[in-house]
Write a structure and sequence with these properties.
Elements (H helix, E strand, L loop, with lengths): L7 H15 L10 E5 L8 E4 L4 E5 L6 H16 L5 H8 L4
Parallel strand pairs: 1-3
Antiparallel strand pairs: 2-3
Length: about 100
């Protein structure tokens, strides 16, 4: 399977796996939804939008399936974090993910 063959069901499987392995957020009750963009539209690969509780994946910005899985896990980790502290951590460590 190539990156351009990834479908919504594959991303849902990855999120379900994250829920099973890492658990739910202590800060947000619902499991995040996701949006899958199949065009190159930005420089980033994924983002967690705390306002909508949504993981957004820009599929064609990934080089492989493993790269896509890594992004889903990374964004899921943001869902599990206390996002009120995100700006504080960014300031302390001078970087943003």
């Amino acid at each position: 399977m190539t990156v351009d063959q990834i479908q919504r069901k594959h991303i849902q499987f990855m999120i379900d796996w994250c829920v099973e392995v890492f658990g739910r957020s202590s800060f947000i009750k619902k499991i995040p939804t996701f949006k899958l963009y199949k065009k190159k539209m930005t420089w980033w690969r994924g983002e967690y939008d705390v306002e909508t509780n949504s993981i957004n994946i820009v599929l064609l910005n990934h080089k492989s399936i493993i790269d896509t899985i890594d992004t889903v896990i990374h964004e899921y980790s943001h869902y599990r974090q206390d996002m009120t502290m995100y700006d504080v951590y960014t300031e302390v460590y001078h970087r943003s993910y």
